[in-house]
Design goal:
With 441 residues, the protein is mostly helical. The longest helix is centred in the middle third of the chain and has 26 residues. The chain is globular and about 65 Å long.
Length: 441
Amino acid sequence: MGEVLARFFRLKEAGTSWSQELLGGTTTFMTMSYIIFVQPVILASVGMDKGAVMVATCLSSALATLLMGLLARYPIALAPAMGHNIFFAVIVCGTMGYSWQVALGAVFISGMIFLVLSFLGLWEGLVAAVPDSLKNAIAVGIGLLITLIGLEYGGLVVDNPGVLVGLGDLSSRPVLCVLGGLIITAVLMALRVPGSILLGIVGTALIGLPLGVVKYHGLFSSPPSLKPTLFQLDIGGALQTGLITVIFVFFFLDLFDTVGTLIGVSEPAGFIKKGRLPRANQAMLADAVGTVSGALMGTSTVTSYIESATGIAQGARTGLANIFTSFFFLVALFFSPLAEMFGGEYIQGKQILHPVIAPPLIIVGYLMMKGVTRIPWDDITEAIPAFLTLVIMPMTVSITEGIAFGFISYSLLKLITGRRKEVHWVIYLFSVLFIIRYLVK
């Protein structure tokens, strides 16, 4: 069996091993495990059952991650997307006043559209259409975004009304915990110790325990019932005229967050060959199935996670890592107290922190900066769109907005300078769609 899987995932050709993939898959799970506990809190604010949402999150994440590993053979994990869940709860259910059942129906329809387009095989061409300068900028921008998230999760960057952000309290317990974990991880990496990022996560947790930042909740628990949210979506209600825009936004966000993440984590790992991402259609299919199944079970849009970069940085190179990550999502149903110790939150003032996973996110940001050297800075028509892409992503905390600014500026500069033939028609098309999206906001 082991040899069959090794041949299927082409471990030898990828220069990896079972232990390396296990290490990478474990690291990815630990850095994204916070979603198991954050997602139920967000969706419970609109009346959804917290326990059922937790189970739906684990099951849909496990399924989508498994499919990504088997179909696309990439070590890129999936789970309900942060940002999308806020749009679901705050905007669709809160501001617009729709029920969570109708909102789930809208997510389901957007996922079905994604599914149909995946079967048509359109996505690989979309990835290939993105110019190399923007591919590298997307990777760097995602790296900066990951770093910002890590700094915020660690309390190193805090809200500052005068200039938006400022330095946190370096003497506070969570910050000391994060700085200690960051030093441990950096030293282990400098010494080339195998599994340095994963060991850094464990080290951070051990530092946090006596500081009271990390709490031990036990080992086992029984999974809650999925019944309160299972098949509770209202597809008919989501087909109302007023929901067309909502469905479009769900689809649009999912499309460009996924494309951006696939490009961003694949470029540094060497998965992109001659400008194309092999098996991109299969990767998008896994995303679509995750979203559809998640809506059926009771959770918001499922998409590729930028935290997968931590597992790739730890050596994961094939879909075998995803098999392990998927398994851990299922195990988390029974070991959720232990998973909560690593991904759990610590509240400091008005800020919700995740100290244990902050150090690896900061480190991964550094690892993804290398692509900046491959941007042709002497060509203004390439450099400015790339610059806007990599700056807008962390500043707006949105992969989609970074891609939008990059596409629009790239198209305009090439058109105005008489170099319009250098731009693929797909980029022009999505530039127009992005502009329309901003105009009708």
